[in-house]
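Thread: quick sanity check before group meeting

JM: Hey all, I'm pulling together slides for Thursday and realized we never actually wrote out the predicted structure for the chain we discussed last week. Dropping the sequence here so it's in one place. If anyone has concerns about the input, flag it before I start.
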Amino acid sequence: MTPRTRGTILAMVCVSFWALIPVVASLGQKTLDHHQFLFWSSLVSFTVLATSAIFTGRIRKVRCLCPKDWLHLLALGLLGTYVYYLLLYLGYSRAIGMEVLVLQYTWPILMVLFSIVILKERVSIRKLIALTLGFAGVVTVLTKGEFQSVKLSNPGVIALVGLGAACFALFSVLSKNVKKDPLLVVAIYFFCACIASFVSMLFFSEFAYPTIDEIIPILINGLFVNGLSYLIWLIALKSTEASYLAPFTLITPVLSAIYLVVFFDEPFLLAYSLGLVCIVAGGLVNSLGLRRDIPT
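JM (edit): ok, ran it. Output follows.
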């Protein structure tokens, strides 16, 4: 097996895990609210990642982190593994899964915009096309193809999901400059999510144990979706070029949509299909590396 083939297989395993987020978020919140579900999932994720760091010896690198490093990593963890997931899980518990799914995967498009503003990257033709396709996809899904009237199942919650997507896009851009060991960094991210979700659970909800039916979704989410998938992804990136693997991750929202239809019998409207196609197409265009640039 060639390194590229191995990397492709590992990337597809990650995609299959990430696409489960709508399913585990719905099944894991039968009695738990989004604060409680996030806490238990983050606890599992942190335990898995911290244990991996200990067994691989990378935990020793924590001594090399200065207070500034800790502040930086905890701030990023708060943004990308707490706020993002809290708003995302809120969306899947109170809104239509397909609407949440499409808003969730606007983050790659928003990341392009943030990279232009924050990192001062040049505005290229491909980035403009990607942003246009992404925006068209969002509008198509949210209006269900009826552009003359916007009627959302839960506008307030959907807006929060969009805010969460923006947070993850910002988190991704700001994380580009992090030079520390990836496994240790991700463990710290979920440590932050674990602490923050525990505090918010006590203040805005209450401590609660998951039911028997919720334990399996929580374990799947914490162990595979937010835990081992990070390790598998790191191995995949070492196997071949990141630019080669990037388009495979864009299969995630399509596979998630299939999961929602299969597991929850949600209607798959033509507008949803067109919206997903637009967003995936936008991501693909952005990964093609067209070289015609427009000076900023």
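AS: nice. The first strand starts at residue 123 and ends at 124. Strands lie at 123-124, 293-294.
JM: adding both to the slides.
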